[in-house]
User: Fold these one by one.
Assistant:
Number 1:
Amino acid sequence: MMSEEQTGKLSGLGKLVDSILRTHNVPAYAVVSQSFEIVQFRGSTGLFLESGDSRNLLKMARPGLKFELRNAIHKVSQSGKPFKKSGLKLVYKGCSCYVSIEVLPLKPDSHEKYFIIIFEETMTSATLRDKKVKQLEADLMIVREDMNSLLEEQEIVNEELERRVRERTAALQEANRSLQQSNSELEQFAYVASHDLQEPLRKIITYADMLSTGLSGKLAREAQGYLDKISRCSQRMQQLIQDLLDISRVDISKEKFVKTDLKAILEDVVQDFDHLISEKGAQLRVGLLPVIEAVPAQVKQLFHNLLSNALKFTSSSRKPLIELSSRQLPKMETGKRPSLDKTRAYYEILFKDNGIGFNPAFAEQVFVIFQRLHPKEKFPGTGIGLALCKKIVVNHGGEIWAEPEDKKGTVFHIVLPAAFSHT
């Protein structure tokens, strides 16, 4: 039996507890002493405490709460301040749930300390699952919105790309039409150059020769000089037209690429210069030359022009020496030249002479049409030969460049693909 004094104290304790709990609005609580004896509890505590004869908190607490309750009461007892811990996992009737405990100190007129333990279910496994599902649905919605945004951006990019492709296609079609027109004009020029322009020149040359022969010894020296000039200028004009015709044919050539033995082509060209080679005492040294896919007539023109140059620009201090050699171009070197296709095989032909050479500053200029580095009176020509060489090499998908040494000679590098590309 409790004394009236104890009963009064407990009554006061109950009023204090009720006052605190009203401010917290919690569903379940227990009042315990410092020795863990339960003095009072209210609400549905079945989730947190097991029923039984004992009134000891630690014996009634479910397994997942015993340590946490002991620890929490100890902390509040030491500090005198409330303590709360959430996210504690319990298994009740086969279901997982999450709870929180809050311990608040009481200060009744007693030497023994009392505590209110407020129990609260924060989340069941089903609630947690629902929350995760909702979060996933929200994340999925964001992903869908992002995908829709990306799709819209992609559509805009595709539309812009299609517009550019249409513009580019139209530009290429226009360029193709212009190219076809240019080729047609070149064909007309070739026809005019071969017939309409050359025929009058042939007549001028013929009549000048007839006058020179028929009136030999009868013309005044001045008149004979004029006649000789007419003949020379007509012949030069005829050669110029022929060279222009040759360079235009490279652009519009419909000749097929076939297996071509470069050494056989060179031997054929050398026969055309037999007399000049003998006259100048020139020496030719020819190494191994490859068999490639090429247009034989164009390769013959290429060798013809290079050999003609080597025999024309000779030094008066030494006999001409012309050397030809070749090698397969290594892939590493192919990659260093932007105009070459790294996937194709190439041969480099070296055409070297010991002539007068030229200033290296003009290494590019020599391949420009009508560009001359020497006076025509000393070295006759039209200034088209090397330009035609470059046209032929480019037409074959290759490169040509010169390495001159003033007054010592020149090395021409000709790079040609081993096989014709059908792309």
Number 2:
Amino acid sequence: MEKLIIQGGNRLEGRVRVSSAKNAVLPIIAGTLLASTPSKLLEIPNLEDVGTICQVIESLGVKITRNEADDEIIFDASTLTATEAPYELVRKMRASFLVMGPLLARKGEAKISMPGGCAIGARPIDLHLKAFEALGAKIEITEDYVYAHAPEGLKGTQIYLDFPSVGATENVIMAASMAEGKTVIENAAEETEIVDLLLANESILIDFQYMTEVQARRCLDYLDGARYVLAGNLRRVASTMYLLTPINVVVNIEDIRLPNDVEIAEYDFDMKRNR
């Protein structure tokens, strides 16, 4: 799609349901690889990228049960066997690289094809790899793939990200969740999807603190799955409100879910302005 042509002149009125943010959903799905018992995620949007990340973790041996009527998916990673994500899937979406952290934490190794691009352009993965090395992983890189392994396990440490990368922050959080001891991530990203990932991981018994830095401490030698309701896309709520502010409109924004399963059932946005 190259452009949108919008014909205005009509009064806007109706109901808008706030779905979950794709950027929050993808790392949380990758994070289900950490759990040795099933995880249930609710409010999963039906998007192509969600389908791709599900295919990636299914290829690793995870059993997935979908309830599309309720936007619910159950991930059973007790059957996780493989540690290599296939090229034909990873090349479709760079977010597939987010399985490296959980695989490294759970299985001690991961082999991932070089991630594909996206509309934003090339974004290096060096921050991810540098952080994995700080946790004790050994990295091998070829033209086609990255192989990481931690023969002696991951060890908690202090990590400084040269840039507050969202993807690197997410990958390190998941890797550190099963590392021995405490990991501190300085200059971590602060986007809302990071908070959602932290809350989802707290549900499977990982101790997190999130202030100006992220601190992760392993609570158990294994992690159990959990039930987690994804937050609504607050950026979509904000953009809808900005769109409606200058005009005469009555719109009902439904099902605004905040992180940690707090829910606002609906919000009536009635903006009338003399023109």
Number 3:
Amino acid sequence: MKKLRSLFAFVCLSLGFSFSVYAQNLATVTASNIQDINGSRLASGQLCFQATDQADQIISFQIGGGGQALRRQYCSPVTNGAVASFTVPNPANTQPAGIYYRITVRDSSTGQEVLRYTQVAFAGAAFNFDNYAPTVTTTTTPSTNATMGNLTINGNLSVTGAMTFAPSSFTASNATLNQAANGNDAISGKRATDTSPTGNFERFRNFANTADLWTVDVTGTLQSGTVPTARLTGTFSGSQLPNPTASTLGGVQSFAAVSHQWINSISTSGVPAASQPSFADISGTATGSQLPNPSATTLGGVQSFTAVSHQWINSVSTSGVPAASQPSFADISGTATGAQLPNPSAATLGGVQSFAAVSHQWINSISTSGVPVASQPAAADLSNGTTGSGAVVLATSPALTTPNIGAAKRLIFN
């Protein structure tokens, strides 16, 4: 306690206050005659002061001149009935003003509490406990409508008129608030400021005090809690809808149809974006009825066609029906290769290899592989020749015109 008093003195000197002001903020407690009813002074014990409200409930408060008082006792030892003087906050200068003290004395030899006074009130820089005259506890009517400190009521409280709790809070269990008259507000209030207001008008939490169940902030917005859809009427405005995210629902702007485009994304501001799908974006397989008919300038669906020997498709109708016919040589362009020609036979035509001319030879056969075979004709192969060998003798002698047989030869016969 001496340290506390020194601290207050230092603060007061630093701020330019006199010790008279310091003394008014603290009251010095003295006592020299704490005794039994037979006059025997208490050999050893403690005198303690505990700050309370008028209902003897322990409170915290502001000490005069500044500083906060802890919710615990101020004690001093008692020896042979006398107490070592100490200081306690002067109730006249505390905030709230007019606090009370619970004063107790404990016998150190037995550990028992041997004196207790409640709702002790005083004012000034000194309090001589020897001169304190307690009053009998009775039910009194407050002289004013103001209560300093905490107020605890056990039982029923009936109030006529208005009750104001400022700036402290009001705590009640199972409170019932009735409308006084038709048209009145059963519960009303106002926020502390209209400039950057913060805080809540209502806040209800779970029993463990770890989560909000229902919260309405000072802007009138529901921040926690759920209103069943069946209880809602009217229409939401766009500004009341939240923005959508990848995992939560939200409002989305309208989108005017664009030919051949579909929505492929929605931003976190609720703005749709569209694009034209490509074939890679389409799943499944188109049916025949989904394909357009072909035309001379546009693509379309075509029916299947069963193969017919020697026929090829030569047209497709605008209904997608193929028509086929057998091509003629006139329909074929280009030149066939040797590998594309069939082999000849005794009854069918086919390809034949080339043949280099050989003197006195003519082709007399072609194999079924198309290879020509040639030989020199004999006299018998001639249509106007005769049989035999050596020089060819014509069957009909040619007519001689001015023949010159040459000089006559003499024949010698033996």
